[in-house]
Amino acid sequence: MRDPGFMVQDQAHETAPDPRARDVEVQLTRAGLGVARRLGDRAGGLLFDRLLRILEARHPRAFAALGELPDARLLIDPVDAPAALLLRVGPTLALRVCDRDAEAEATVRGPCARLLDLLEGRIDGDALFFRRELSIEGDTALILALRNTLDGEEMDLFGDVAAAAGPLRHALPVARRNAGRALDLLATARRLAPPPLRWGMAMLERRLTGLRQGA
Amino acid sequence: MGPFELICPAGNPAALRAAVDAGADAVYLGFRDETNARNFPGLNFSRPELAEAIAYAHARSVQVFVAINTYPQAGNLAPWQRAVDDAARLKADAVILADLGLLAYAAKHHPDLRLHLSVQASAANAEAIRLYREAFGVRRVVLPRVLTVPEIARLNAEVDVETEVFVFGGLCPMAEGRCSLSSYATGLSPNKQGVCSPASHVRYEPRGEALASRLGGFTINVFGAGEPAGYPTLCKGRFVPGGGTSRDPAYLFEEPTSLNALALLPELKAAKVCALKIEGRQRGKAYIAAVVAAYRRALDAFAQGLPVPALDLEAMVEGGAQTTGAYTRAWR
């Protein structure tokens, strides 16, 4: 569908991704969920703990607010990704990969790209709900508290993670600027690659994202 | 009269920055408690956040109005009076009040503080507005959304008070400040606790491809597959009248729809309206940025006598539909 013209025109942030770079980030998020699921509870848990610590350092006010919420679990289900996330708010904040039927006090479902936009305040949650692109179940107050808390931040998932990566942080703006050209090169390489290599690349992509072709 | 003032909502500091950067003349907001009519989880401003917000806005010549527009409860005046005191101390440009006692308190203790009358006061005639002006020095009245444009013009001809009207966003079809529909279903009041359809009492249930919204245990709407959804408010619920079972549920009061009075700018200007208000302190900063920017462009074009550009905001409004509301309501 036509993307409604209400994405934040984030001119204040030099690292704001263009649409092609954004596509890459969404693919990486989906692939990351697939990888985290394969890593299992222990290693995946360590990764998510690290991610939360990075985000907490960048957004202390939001994390303090999440910590003050009553102990509850929120299932975040990107319907086009291989796994869902279980966010525990309250005194013991935690994030884990989980099955999409995991038990939780509240559930938010929607396409991965939209959930990522919502996390970063690039799109309005009410508008997504009105258009039925986002569905919610369970404790509405918990969902609203989370949404409002995150919307009060200027979060940039990849930017925040890159910022914690020392000298590598300078790579992200460059990567975002050049994402379109890199994708074009990749597409060309894919077209020119001999069939066995092409099939191998496609299989690897499917394994990473956990998706079947055409899904 | 100068150009219209554009008054924009903010539910958090990021939304305030978005509104200021997108071209607001003033931003209205509330404290994080029951003293304002958008008392929702995770929303609104702490005192330090208000101080930062005012500094940000004033540095860019944008005003900040603090809505303290619920009605204090018997024996518990302190939160409301403290809110007025803190807004004055932090140098807010105006407070938006509804309660007579609170107006009297503000006028007595903060004579230099500019007072606006909230839409929640439902002041809809010249006599009422004159009383607020003479008794408390109210400088501006936010008119309830029940008046037609000719009625607004007649009213402005009779009073010496600035008027502000809503032009975009969610729409209360009831008389503001006097609606108890949500109180009936939830036991919590929009007018006292600032919660119309409190999230704690709202549940959404998928029913196959349909979506049911429930408030306080009552099913108030079922949206079919692909049908645009609306807020879970009783005034926009679908019901079977008269307790019958054979008729399809229908909207008894108002359909899920959003106000957009952009087409009425010439009439509102001729009616001597001073300021135009965008609803939506509960909305995200992406919405605020887009709506404020669109209205800024429209008002700038209007002020220069140029064609007013269309907003193209249908995709983000309640029910995916827009109306000019009571301003042009034929049945009135």
Automatic annotation (TrEMBL), chain A:
Protein's UniProt name: Putative lipid carrier protein YhbT
Residues in SCP2 domain copies: 95-151
Basic and acidic residues bias spans: 11-20
Organism field: Azospirillum brasilense
InterPro entries for this protein: SCP2_sterol-bd_dom (IPR003033), SCP2_sterol-bd_dom_sf (IPR036527)
UniProt region (Disordered), positions on chain: 1-20
Matches recorded under Pfam families: SCP2 (PF02036)
SUPFAM superfamilies: SCP-like
Organism superkingdom: Bacteria
TrEMBL record, chain B:
Highest taxon in the source lineage: Bacteria
Reported cofactor(s): [4Fe-4S] cluster
Protein's pathway: Cofactor biosynthesis; ubiquinone biosynthesis
A GO molecular-function descriptor: metal ion binding
Chain ranges passing through the membrane: none
Keyword Cytoplasm listed: no
Any GO BP annotation: proteolysis
Keyword 4Fe-4S: yes
UniProt cross-references to HAMAP family, sorted A to Z: UbiU
Oligomer and partners: Forms a heterodimer with UbiV.
This protein's name: Ubiquinone biosynthesis protein UbiU
